[in-house]
Amino acid sequence: MSRTAINILWFKRDLRLEDHAALCAAVDQGLPILALYLKEPTQWEQPQHTPRQWQFVWDSIESLNHTLEKTAVHAIEAEALDFFAAVQDHYDIKGVFSHEEIGIQWTYDRDKAVKQWFQSHGIDWHEYPTFGVARGLKNRRHWLKNWYAEIHAPAPRSPRDAFSSLCLPNPFPHWSATAPELPPNYFQRGGLARSEKVLQSFLLERITSYARSISKPKESRKGCSRISPHLAWGNLSVRQVFQRSRDLEVPGSKRNLKAFQDRLRWQSHFMQKFESEVEYEHIPINRAFVPVDASKEMDTHKFQAWKDGLTGVPLVDACMRCLTQTGYLNFRMRAMVVSFYSQYLWLPFKPGADYLAGLFTDFEPGIHYPQFQMQSGYTGVNTIRIYNPIKQSQDHDPKGVFIKEWIPELRDIPEEYIHEPWKIPPMQWAMEGWQTGNYPRAPIVNLQRARKHASDLLYSTKKSKNSRIESVRILERHTNPGRKEI
């Protein structure tokens, strides 16, 4: 008995219907389509992937099916090779359609194994580039020109009805993934309708406060676009967002609009860096800093204090607690907590980078790992920034509103001491009777000494011959000639 010929549409970080090259190509073939998202157990055991992200993915799959008015896209919990082998036993797989995934090392290795299996079984795997990212790129000579050409090109419209009519039911209900079992939480939720609502409210209303709120830990929660998880998991494409911002009559100033569009370009820029050099996930990209990172010992007490928001530095701790509870933090505060981890606590980058990845609902490997290295001072081509957490606190949370929201132990501390409560005179502390529970009365490291130690080692390494040689290599591979963007 002959098997039915089908195609497979493999959703990854592209959980949408519009501007979806793989979906359009699969529909053009005219064969029945098995459309699915694979929740691979081994992948979701990696430290970078957590239930808060699965909640977002689950929402996104449900939203696809709600929009299509049928269960067309199936959430399958199985290892990729096991699943495809089972499908091949029941059907004649003619082709698999997907976007190239700019993922962690695990997904890269998985894709190589899957590709080999497809080839051995005569199955064509049609992969389409993630927007703005070119696989196998040797240099950036034409990258920017191509990016602008693509960003302004009309996005293909999805043949939604045709897709829905071709979709097959789930042949393996025993492999059906289930909804996350999470208590009520503050994590951002996924899906097409939610992505549209968030983007619309930003472009038509919230963009007016974009520039003045972008660095502030509290105000940024409304003033920033908040579309990052929708981009990370593909509810929206970068091109969709850019063209919406280009075409809508927005009330925000040109400065706000340009700043937002620049960040869309930077998103693709950093993902291209990661695609071109996946080593960003594992070791300092400037190899001269490998011995520096290797010299850092994993002090579990410091690591746990940082994770729990108990370092004794109020803004750092407020940010970590907020991130733990909500899955979101604005860029400047992300940079600050990385700087504190890597430079003040002097801890190795990989455990901290993986841990933060799991906290971010909007975890995007191509942005996360290059940025973590940049904020750690490991690139050799960027200015080494060692964020002063006290100055950041005074500048961006001057009255301590954000601090007191997330560190209730400090709610009675007066405004003049909220950034450095350890400076309260002991007699005043005793007379006022302030109670801070188990919150540290002083930072767990001496901030001045820690900053100098990091500065001396990082700058001396950056000036070394090996670092300069590496810097030339990095610039040649990751920048467009004539531009300094890195």
Q: What can you see in these coordinates?
A:
- The protein has helices at 21-29, 41-44, 51-68, 80-90, 105-120, 143-152, 160-166, 192-204, 210-213, 220-223, 228-232, 238-247, 254-276, 290-294, 300-308, 314-326, 331-344, 349-359, 365-376, 389-396, 401-406, 426-432, 447-462, 465-478, and strands at 4-11, 33-38, 73-76, 91-99, 124-128.
- It has 486 residues and is of the alpha/beta class.
- The chain has 3 domains: 4-128, HUPs (Rossmann fold, 3-Layer(aba) Sandwich); 192-274, Alpha Horseshoe (Serine Threonine Protein Phosphatase 5, Tetratricopeptide repeat), CATH 1.25.40.80; 279-478, Orthogonal Bundle (DNA Cyclobutane Dipyrimidine Photolyase, subunit A, domain 3), CATH 1.10.579.
- The relative contact order is 0.11.
- The model has no long low-confidence stretch (mean pLDDT 95).
Could you outline the blueprint of secondary structure elements for this entry?
Blueprint: E1 4-11, H1 21-29, E2 33-38, H2 41-44, H3 51-68, E3 73-76, H4 80-90, E4 91-99, H5 105-120, E5 124-128, H6 143-152, H7 160-166, H8 192-204, H9 210-213, H10 220-223, H11 228-232, H12 238-247, H13 254-276, H14 290-294, H15 300-308, H16 314-326, H17 331-344, H18 349-359, H19 365-376, H20 389-396, H21 401-406, H22 426-432, H23 447-462, H24 465-478
Helix pairs in contact: 12-13, 13-19, 17-19
User: Which CATH first-tier class of the largest domain would you pick?
Assistant: Mainly Alpha
* Main sheet: strands, sense, barrel: 5 strands, parallel
**Large-scale geometry:** globular
Extract low-pLDDT stretches: none
- CATH architectural name of the largest domain: Orthogonal Bundle
Question: What's the arrangement of strands in the largest beta sheet?
Answer: 3-2-1-4-5
The percentage of residues in β strands lies in 5-15%
Query: What value does the average pLDDT take?
Result: 95
Counted by DSSP, the helix tally is: 24
Radius of gyration, taken over Cα atoms and rounded to an integer in Å: 24 Å
User: What gap, in angstroms, lies between the N and C termini?
Assistant: 58 Å
Looking at CATH, which topology of the largest domain would you report?
Answer: DNA Cyclobutane Dipyrimidine Photolyase, subunit A, domain 3
- E-strand count: 5
- The CATH superfamily name of the largest domain is DNA Cyclobutane Dipyrimidine Photolyase, subunit A, domain 3
What's the domain count?
Answer: 3
